[in-house]
Amino acid sequence: xxxxxxxxxxxxxxxxxxxxxxxxxxxxxxxxxxxxxxxxxxxxxxxxxxxxxxxxxxxxxxxxxxxxxxxxxxxxxxxxxxxxxxxxxxxxxxxxxxxxxxxxxxxxxxxxxxxxxxxxxxxxxxxxxxxxxxxxxxxxxxxxxxxxxxxxxxxxxxxxxxxxxxxxxxxxxxxxxxxxxxxxxxxxxxxxxxxxxxxxxxxxxxxxxxxxxxxxxxxxxxxxxxxxxxxxxxxxxxxxxxxxxxxxxxxxxxxxxxxxxxxxxxxxxxxxxxxxxxxxxxxxxxxxxxxxxxxxxxxxxxxxxxxxxxxxxxxxxxxxxxxxxxxxxxxxxxxxxxxxxxxxxxxxxxxxxxxxxxxxxxxxxxxxxxxxxxxxxxxxxxxxxxxxxxxxxxxxxxxxxxxxxxxxxxxxxxxxxxxxxxxxxxxxxxxxxxxxxxxxxxxxxxxxxxxxxxxxxxxxxxxxxxxxxxxxxxxxxxxxxxxxxxxxxxxxxxxxxxxxxxxxxxxxxxxx
Amino acid sequence: xxxxxxxxxxxxxxxxxxxxxxxxxxxxxxxxxxxxxxxxxxxxxxxxxxxxxxxxxxxxxxxxxxxxxxxxxxxxxxxxxxxxxxxxxxxxxxxxxxxxxxxxxxxxxxxxxxxxxxxxxxxxxxxxxxxxxxxxxxxxxxxxxxxxxxxxxxxxxxxxxxxxxxxxxxxxxxxxxxxxxxxxxxxxxxxxxxxxxxxxxxxxxxxxxxxxxxxxxxxxxxxxxxxxxxxxxxxxxxxxxxxxxxxx
Lengths: 512, 248
Hints:
heterodimer, A: Beta Polymerase, domain 2, Cytochrome-c3 Hydrogenase, chain B, 4-stranded antiparallel sheet, globular, B: alpha/beta, Rossmann fold, 5-stranded parallel sheet, 8 helices
């Protein structure tokens, strides 16, 4: 058995055969339980029946015939992650789809089929997760990317995208409508596929960080931090306490900027222009606080495996806190107007409702999940960095519509401001970064953060000599795009922009 | 009533532009200041740490088109040959102009007389995101908010390429979306201009070398390069106004 690093929390293998690790820990690949396909399936289904969620699925490389499908299960109630694997079937073989019993596996299995040519029996809709241009064209007989079609009198189809009317990333939306009412929406993505995961393996350490910061450009800290945590786990090093504090400040500033921007965009979509204009300006105030700390509005350059690069020194704290207080006061004034305006609330209420059971079954995460009553938040459930000592209680709502998603954002803004203020006043006096030792060979690291859209997962596996052998990224959008599609059912198609904005998902983060 | 009071409280937030007194915070990483005379012979530490290979040594050159404006080179250089400055004016008209070599950066100049007469007071642009991560898209959107108010200069982003005088491309152009910039460009009526915005569109940025990304088709002539990851809204505004001869 491989020796364990000091902050590893891998436990002796319990009766259910799963290997448990804490968030931001690494485990020797040799310790990963690899079960038969039926035992793997049973283990995953039973764990999920007992309250776990599928946080990630990936293929770990190995010699020919010895690749492993890995499932990462988040056991939120126990603050731990369960790992289990099964061999990739031989060419021509297939697996019985988890999706047949476990809806939240549908995207993961579609991705495994797309990326690794693994075939699944009984998958309800095993179309490639991403549309790939090389599969299209006149030479191809059968359409590789068919859309689900509703047939019947008066049914019509509306196709939107991939190029949209605003300054937005590309994606295709196919609506099946009866009159104004949406019966079904299928979202076809893949246009933004930059080959992130494969390219990361070939990149230099500095470039890996730059790529992680651009997985989704509005979530540079969320993804950059998950990347740093994964690398630190492989290297068996912890960031100093002051770095943890500064990282959490940056993560919350990113949340604030995006939540405020989203609230403004929601106002814009219902024609409430004072809210749109003022919140649009206020978003910049939070971005500029990030700029003040690290020189980039999006937090680029702040993080480094081992810690952070920039400090918030005592002499800069006063003006920082003054600006934060001014932004807070502006926000409160504007939110008071927005949520008091019948023109806004009447459009937000009862629009795009996603019921809790459905949200849970598809594995919805982040503010959208919390708006539907799924109280999931990595900061509380799998605390990392400063959140291990300074708890943050996730905002709650239950009605699951545009209104709930807006209210959740407003509440999270208030919590984030209070959290940032407390962290600034209580930055531990340590170094900013720890030197990064070489990565341990043949280990698997699991790192989760709570970005502003929700749970971000980075998995990194090292091979011989500590070189990266596999890298997997799960953006919250991976789970939540299906949530948007389902929330549209029974709504008017004219409410699509509003519903879309209330989720505000990442195309780049999904397509990778 | 409450809304009116709030309107008064919010006040007028649009910044004067162009304005010589505009300064970004000292930590903002804008234009780099190179001093090749300080380079130690044989030293290539900056080039070694650069994530995108934007730096060449002997003599020292820095390609702003490939630069991600990260702090790696500045912290690696012990001689002070590379410093970052908060200077946000960075946009150029040609690709070679983006290469810093210690001489003055040749910033963008105005369009030819005919184009300037046609577009100088009213420029409609169609944006095409082709693999952009929503960094460039976000800060391009921001040029429309009250602070920057790009509309006051007659510049507007439109929904249809048929209504546009040009396109702005962001992202490293993945194979899966390569048709979009090509067809959008073809749909814009002549005369027209194309703008490459951000490191990805200009050079591939962090994705340069990824087989999944193709870059902007070579037959789309670029009139303006706006470097950055992403470019600051002021960098974008400055570049566009230089092109129109509006910020002398």
